[in-house]
Structures are given as C-alpha cells and as structure tokens.
C-alpha cells in the first residue's frame, strides 16, 4: 500500500509525455500518408500512459519513479537511466559498425551518436557549473 | 552504515508506513534504511534525526565506529 498518497505535478509528466509522443506519432504517420498506423500508435501510447498512471496508485515503486519525491527511488531511476544509456550506446555502435561494413556512411547511427556526445558534454558542463 | 532507526521507530510504536508518511518517503525506503541497504542523503538523515529529537550521529553510525 502506497504511503505517499498525494500526487504532484511531476507524477503526471511521464503519462503526459507518453500521450504527447502518441500525438506526434499520429502527425508523423498522417504526413506519411498512413493515418491508420498513427491512430494505432496513439492508442498504444494512451493505453501505456494510462497504465503507468494507474499502476502508480497501487505500486510504491511506480509512484516513486513518477513523482520523484522519494530520493531512493529517484536514485534508482537515475542509475537505471544510465544503464539504459550504456545499452543504447552499445546498440548504436553496433549499428554504426554494421552500416560501415556494408559500405555505407554509417548514418543515421553516426548522427545520433554525435547528438548523444554533444548532449553528454553539455550536461557535464551544466552540472559542473551548477554543483 | 549502521543505524538505530528501527529501534527508535518501534519504541515510538510507529509502523514503517507511518514513519514513511511523516518523512514523505516510501515505506520501501524506510525498510531499506533500517536494514542498512540504503544510506539516506544528508537532508533525509537530518529529517530522521529531527523527527526522533536526536542528532544524526546519535542515530547513524559509521561502520568503523
């Protein structure tokens, strides 16, 4: 049973981002001439967002991951995000190597990797100044 | 890091969920602190100490102490 009963604005950020992403998918698919796929993507994201919002009412862990009020769960979220980033970087590198080995220029993996690298350096600089 | 949170909580007759509510954290976090699996941040350690009317050093003990 959750002990933190009040919801704050942060709690709704992830579900809201999920719905917003679904709307962006809908726009993307519609521009691409496949609005049906867009509606399916939007439906999946709405169900996902509603699911995590409801799960947060029953699970302390989900609630803590959504509202970030519990420092231990916020730390777990941060470390899990870092692990996810490492896995994504490895997948990106693998994709880049495969593309280069096929005689291509490595896109889009090279561009995504560059964006990630710039984002990391920017974040280090920002947090270095802030802390 | 060892601590006396469980002893102090039970001495007050509080459940983990009640202490968690007072400190605005999850019950899981209180359990993790009590079992020594999680070392709280300084602000939370101070909040715990204030709740029990003690200092941080009286509740939390470094392993080499």
Plain-language structure description:
The complex is a heterodimer of chains A (131) and B (65). Chain A is an all-alpha fold. Chain A is 79% helix and 0% strand. Chain A has helices at residues 13-31, 35-58, 60-67, 71-101, 109-130. The two termini of chain A are 36 Å apart. Chain B is 57% helix and 6% strand. Chain B has helices at 5-11, 16-23, 27-34, 42-51, 56-59, and strands spanning 2-3, 60-61. A two-stranded antiparallel ribbon of chain B has the order 1-2. The model of chain B has no long low-confidence stretch (mean pLDDT 94). At the A-B interface, helix 3 and helix 4 of A face helix 2 and helix 3 of B.
List the helices and strands and how they pair.
The complex is a heterodimer of chains A (131) and B (65).
Chain A: H1 13-31, H2 35-58, H3 60-67, H4 71-101, H5 109-130
Helix pairs in contact in A: 1-2, 2-3, 4-5
Chain B: E1 2-3, H1 5-11, H2 16-23, H3 27-34, H4 42-51, H5 56-59, E2 60-61
Summarize this structure briefly.
With 131 residues, chain A is mainly alpha-helical. Chain A contains five helices and no strands. Helix content of chain A is 79%, strand content 0%.
């Amino acid at each position: 049973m959750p002990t933190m009963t009040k919801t704050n604005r942060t709690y709704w950020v992830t579900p809201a981002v999920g719905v917003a992403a679904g709307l962006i998918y809908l726009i993307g698919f519609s521009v691409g001439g496949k609005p049906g796929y867009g509606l399916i993507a939007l439906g999946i994201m709405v169900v996902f967002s509603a699911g995590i919002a409801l799960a947060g009412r029953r699970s302390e862990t989900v609630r803590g991951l959504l509202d970030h009020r519990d420092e231990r769960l916020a730390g777990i979220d941060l470390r899990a995000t870092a692990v996810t980033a490492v896995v994504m970087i490895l997948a990106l590198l693998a994709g880049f190597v495969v593309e280069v080995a096929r005689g291509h220029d490595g896109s889009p993996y090279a561009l995504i990797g560059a964006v990630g690298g710039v984002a990391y350096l920017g974040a280090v600089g920002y947090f270095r100044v802030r802390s | 890091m060892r601590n006396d949170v469980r002893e102090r909580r039970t001495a007050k007759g509080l459940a983990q969920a009640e202490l968690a509510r007072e400190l605005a954290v999850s019950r899981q976090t209180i359990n993790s602190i009590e079992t020594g699996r999680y070392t709280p941040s300084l602000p939370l350690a101070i909040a715990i100490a204030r709740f029990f009317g003690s200092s941080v050093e009286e509740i939390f003990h470094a392993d080499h102490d």
